[in-house]
Amino acid sequence: MKRIKENARYLEIRNEYDVAVVGGGVAGAAAAISAARNNAKVCLIERYCAIGGLATLGNVNVYLPLCDGKGNKIITGIAEEFMKLSILDGYGKIPECWLNNNFEECKRVRLKVEFNPWTFAIELEKLLIDEGVEILYDTRFSDVIKEGNKITHLIFEDKKGRFAIKSKVVVDASGDADVCVCAGEKVVSVDTNVACGWFFCFDGEKVKRYVFSQKYDHFNRQVYDLNTGFSIEQTTQQILSSRENISKIIEKMKNENSRILPVSLPSIPTFRMTRRLKGLIELEESHEKTLFSDAVGMFGDWRKSGPVYYMPFSALYAVRTSNLITAGRCISACSAWDIIRAIPVCALTGEIAGTASALLCRSKSKRFSSLDIRKLQQTLKNQGVKVDEKI
Ligand SMILES: Cc1cc2nc3c(=O)[nH]c(=O)nc-3n(C[C@H](O)[C@H](O)[C@H](O)COP(=O)(O)OP(=O)(O)OC[C@H]3O[C@@H](n4cnc5c(N)ncnc54)[C@H](O)[C@@H]3O)c2cc1C
Predict the structure, then answer these.
(1) Which of 43, 119, 335, 337 could connect to 285 by a Cys-Cys bridge, CB 3.0–4.6 Å?
(2) Among 57, 174, 271, which residue has the most ligand 1 atoms within 8 Å of its CB, making it the best to mutate?
(3) Ligand 1 centroid to 53 CA: how many Å?
(4) What is the rounded distance in angstroms from the CA atom of residue 202 to the CA atom of residue 261?
């Protein structure tokens, strides 16, 4: 590989925050809102120009269940607030039985909704602004500056070039564990990605969602570099391949109905999994019903009825970096990864990470690993989160 040395330079330190959240997906939005509600000065940095990540820019518009499939609502707090926000325009509806508390029916009908991605993006953005979160769009995280085991500054790039911000605490909600890698954390990749695309078309009468999904062997562990992630060529190839297949589907539909018009294509790479933190604990499917002593939230399995999991705090925070925590699909989950990557669980881990970050800013302890777990659990409960209930 040919290389060139970049000139050393000083960077402007643009601002100082209590909490910097990298990535404005569902997890990042939940983290930023909960940190702000807990009186932290928060900045949310997003490389694209809307909030919601895969859920909005990826057109992934099914808000998977908040319940366990046995009639019990398991996920509450911001995850439930976001579900309501996503259907504010009336596009999707909460199932009647859940509104009427018809327990027998709730055992059969799961508490999930479909939503309009743009309504959700706009409502999330409004909420962030109302809560006092400073949003930086069109800004890409690129590195950290560490002193010992602590991140002191984050480096970003915008159209003017590189700049730094100072932050007491950092939430990695990039979906790809970008901050973890730069901070020297151990990361892991999973090779269950598919070439896919969720897209919307107008069929002459209404707008409908269509899904293209196909196994795509190119993106497997062998070609994925843990340090650099997917190369820009691989990402481009995934986007081009998905788009080509979507175009073919649209052409085919046009032959049957000439009024078919695409109205929204995915505008974010639709990888299900790239990298995640290797934390103190890696959540496994076999952890079902394991009530960890550091449990900070509860969630069910969107794929089947019955299982209930408790989220250990130690699956969220970094191992080598005292003031770094993850949220969303890049937390430390092994075989349970397919469960935790669902939108409501991402919102839940976002709320946990944001709340913990605000508490850390105010606590004597300066590391997540020694944060007062009782206080965190109680704060989350006060916010309406189910933490350690017996089901
Ligand atoms: C094809 C597909 C279908 C799915 N279907 C469903 C479904 O039906 N229901 C469901 O609940 N879940 C579904 N999922 C899973 C779910 O959508 C995601 O796992 C979840 O939305 C992830 O949220 P997140 O906030 O953790 O990450 P993301 O949504 O990936 O958000 C990360 C954000 O960080 C930003 N970012 C990344 N790197 C940087 C950087 N360096 N600097 C600045 N910003 C950065 C990104 O632009 C993005 O906005 C699906 C996923 C895929 C790929």
Answers:
(1) 335
(2) 174
(3) 5
(4) 5
Whether 152 and 166 have beta carbons less than 8 Å apart is answered as yes
Which of 347, 336, 351 minimizes the C-alpha distance to 303? 336
Q: Ligand 1 atom 19: the closest Cα is on which residue?
A: 341
Q: Are the C-beta atoms of residues 299 and 311 closer than 8 Å to each other? A: yes
Taking the C-alpha atoms of residue 286 and residue 277, their distance in angstroms, rounded to an integer, is 19
The helix/strand/coil state of 153 is: strand
Q: Given ligand 1 and candidates 60, 80, 170, which is best to mutate, with the most ligand atoms within 8 Å of its CB?
A: 60
Q: Taking a C-beta distance cutoff of 8 angstroms, is the pair 284, 58 a contact?
A: no
How far is Cα 131 from Cα 53, in angstroms, rounded to an integer? Answer: 20
Q: What is the pLDDT along the chain (391 residues), one digit of tens a residue?
A: 899 999 999 999 999 999 999 999 999 999 999 999 999 999 999 999 999 999 999 999 999 999 999 999 999 999 999 999 999 999 999 999 999 999 999 999 999 999 999 999 999 999 999 999 999 999 999 999 999 999 999 999 999 999 999 999 999 999 999 999 999 999 998 767 777 899 999 999 999 999 988 776 655 544 567 777 788 888 888 889 889 999 999 999 999 999 999 999 999 999 888 899 999 999 999 999 999 999 999 999 999 999 999 999 999 999 999 999 999 999 999 999 999 999 999 999 999 999 999 999 999 988 999 999 999 999 999 999 999 998 8
State which amino acid sits at residue 325: I
Alpha-carbon span 84 to 196, nearest angstrom: 27
Cβ atoms of 95 and 111 closer than 8 Å: yes
Site of tokens 């518009």: 61
Atom of ligand 1 nearest to the CA of 330: 26
Within a 10 A sphere around the Cβ of 249, how many other Cβ atoms?
17
